[in-house]
Design a protein that fits this description.
The protein is mainly alpha-helical. The chain has 10 helices and no strands.
Length: 202
């Protein structure tokens, strides 16, 4: 195994275990075993310890989602539409879930807000919150019937449904989705999400 391959294998193994058991239920020994790495000092050497490995796994997933959402948001700032904004928000999660390691990566993503707020800068939750605020700022002129608090609440509902999808809770026994399912699954989230945002104020 090459020196550069070892960190990737450790990240992949830790991601799978974190998705299944969370940080408290994931040990360095289990990560090494699943990664097939015999050197007991490998996690410390490459990452500095378990906490840094957990943060690296979280940021690998979160940074990908943030970058994808940023790319989707940019063209919509000057020409916004509700469906396009919901699509830009949910598509990175659907794409992640439908990818090869998606069922693990998507679950890791949904756990970041389970962490204490003191960890939100390190694990990327703060970046996700900031980006949600930017999406809502672009949405607000399109939804004048919603005040800021109601828009935030509804956007959180769209986010919660997307996270529910990410952990597989909406599958109802269906097999794990693959790359060919992205468009269909995006539409299944965009249509009700857009309808929720457009509905009359409560």
């Amino acid at each position: 195994m090459t020196q550069t391959a070892t960190p990737s294998r450790l990240l992949d193994a830790a991601e799978e275990l974190l998705a299944q058991h969370g940080p408290a239920g994931t040990s360095v020994r289990d990560v090494l075993r699943l990664a097939g790495v015999a050197n007991a000092a490998a996690v410390g050497y490459h990452f500095g310890g378990k906490a840094a490995l957990v943060a690296a796994v979280e940021r690998r997933v979160v940074d990908q989602v943030v970058a994808d959402r940023e790319r989707s948001l940019q063209p919509l700032v000057d020409a916004p539409d509700v469906e396009g904004l919901v699509d830009g928000w949910v598509r990175p999660i659907v794409t992640l879930r439908c990818a090869g390691r998606g069922r693990y990566a998507a679950r890791v993503f949904t756990r970041i807000f389970d962490q204490p707020p003191a960890r939100w800068e390190a694990n990327g939750a703060a970046a996700i919150r900031a980006m949600a605020g930017r999406y809502c700022a672009v949405l607000a002129p399109l939804l004048p019937h919603l005040d800021a608090a109601e828009l935030t609440w509804r956007w959180q509902s769209v986010t919660a449904t997307t996270d529910f999808y990410a952990i597989g809770a909406l599958d109802f026994g269906a097999p794990d989705p693959g790359p060919d399912d992205v468009e269909r699954h995006v539409r299944r989230l965009v249509v009700p999400g857009s309808a929720l945002l457009r509905a009359a104020a409560s």
